[in-house]
Specification:
Elements (H helix, E strand, L loop, with lengths): L3 H19 L7 H8 L3 H7 L4 H12 L1
Amino acid sequence: MRTWKSIQEKKSLSLLQDYFVGKGYHATTLNQISKESSTPCGSVYYYFENRKEQLAQETILRTG
């Protein structure tokens, strides 16, 4: 069964993958990620201590 959280998570991972592949890791900013995923920037900073590095690792692990 799909839940709202799983749909949002999949959408966010797809968005991150597009950014990291299309723009490159160094050209992708947390502000872009926050804006495009409709996630408050403070939440990104709160939940991901290592910020962009941790997001990139999670994206790679979950999307292959």
